[in-house]
Amino acid sequence: MTDQTAHKKTWPDRLVDGIDFISTIIMVVLTVVVFAEVLSRYFFNFPLVFSNEMTLLLFPWVIFLAAISVTHYEGHLSINFFRNQMPKAVQKWAFAFSKLVMLFFSIFMSYSAYKMGENTINQVMPVLRISKSWLTTSVTVSFALISLILVLHLVQIILGKRKVPDEEEMFDDLDHGH
Fold first, then answer.
1. pLDDT one digit per residue (tens) for the chain, 178 residues
2. Hey, what long-range contacts does 32-38 have (CB within 8 A, 24 or more apart)?
3. pTM of the model
4. Roughly how many angstroms between the first and final C-alpha of the chain, as a whole number?
5. Which residues contact 47 (CB under 8 A, 6 or more apart)?
6. Exposed, middle or buried, 27 (CB in 10 Å: 0-12/13-18/19+)?
7. DSSP per-residue codes, the chain
């Protein structure tokens, strides 16, 4: 197997990489807005009135889009001491159970954020004049996609295509396979 085929990306990998790219663009815009606000306020004594709302809007999108990547590449914190003490067969089901708990939480978060968005859809941000529901849409979208990723992970675990990560492998994989 060549090095090129060893790192062939699947469609979920490419989707998450695209989401990472979007998150990066939003982070750049957020950084430019905050830098422009600081520059404008302290050097020209002319505050940018839209910057506070823009920051309030963009920051959740950066965080929650990045959470999709963290979930896909299993970059989240986990305490595996007890699971690692179990027999290998039990470890697999404990790993699957943890994914199931995460899935339940993700579905709950996505639904709750959607309902909150419904309640705020008619509230408008005073300066940008856009609906406040855009603030919660980031949570709805990200946790819906996280839920899909977790379902894919569960199917892979059941089919034996995703193994329980060892602690050493988790440290080695910090670069997401790049």
1. 444 445 688 888 999 999 999 999 999 999 999 999 999 999 988 989 899 999 999 999 999 999 999 999 888 766 677 777 888 788 888 899 999 999 999 999 999 999 999 999 999 999 999 999 998 999 999 999 999 999 999 999 999 888 887 765 554 555 555 5
2. 33/58
3. 0.82
4. 17
5. 37, 40, 41
6. middle
7. --HHHHTPPPHHHHHHHHHHHHHHHHHHHHHHHHHHHHHHHHHSS---TTHHHHHHHHHHHHHHHHHHHHHHTT-S----HHHHHS-HHHHHHHHHHHHHHHHHHHHHHHHHHHHHHHHHTT-B-TTT--BTHHHHHHHHHHHHHHHHHHHHHHHHHHTTSSPPPPHHHHHHGGGTT-
